[in-house]
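Researcher: Go.
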Amino acid sequence: MPQKSYSIIVAPSDGSRSYHLQVSGRLLLAAGIGLGLVGIAFVFLLATYGSLARKVASVEDLETRCAALETEAAKVGSLEEEVERLREMDRRVRSLMGLSESPPAQAVGEDGSAVGAAGGAEALPLDLPDAIIPDEGERATVEKALHSRRNALRWPVDGFVTSTFAEGRGDGGIHAGIDVAAPRNTPVVAPLAGKVIDAGWHPIYGNVAVIDHGGGLVTVYGHNARLLVREGARVREGDTVGLVGSTGQSTAPHLHFETRKDGYSVDPLFLLKRKERG
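Model: Structure:
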């Protein structure tokens, strides 16, 4: 059976020579199939591009949401810090006004049991006078009066200093002593002989002892797990005053140690032996 063919004649309108093109049916069929495949491929590419575009948009949306969440998380962190600062300020104000968040009628050990100044009888909340931070002139006068004791006192506990004297606090207050980190229940000893003039519970310093060494020099020992001395007791240099703890407003075991001269706070590092620094 003869194969069909098709003729294409192109005749110019000016009567000039015409052109004749003969195309087989197979060629036309192949051309049609080719064009169809090209069209299908084009449609497939369009569909694929659309899917990819949607995925890219989805990724960009997720990135935007992640960035927004990170921003919100940072805001939450700032708010938590502000809340904690306000809580600390509230505790300080309550302390200055003689109030407390949960008024303790007695000293307590870290296990929650009631203990007295030496671990036995009940004790009333301690009324510890606020330290006076001297100005430059007063500090020079106080340090001159203590010059003979400069770097002469033994350390009250074996540990390392985590917070120094006069270091700024989050509530704008001033640190009236130093904090010495040490393992829980590490012995806290008296650096000099003296008399215990206060021993009991304080809303900020927890189980705290105060020793008068004479000549206007007083030392303060705060955050003890337990106190091992009573008010009125006489202590010698090296006698154990208490055990390191985290009572009162404290987040980890350490000793809050203060030295005062005639009511003025003195940097303990001015008096403690240099060779024994933690």
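Model: Residues 5-79 form one domain.
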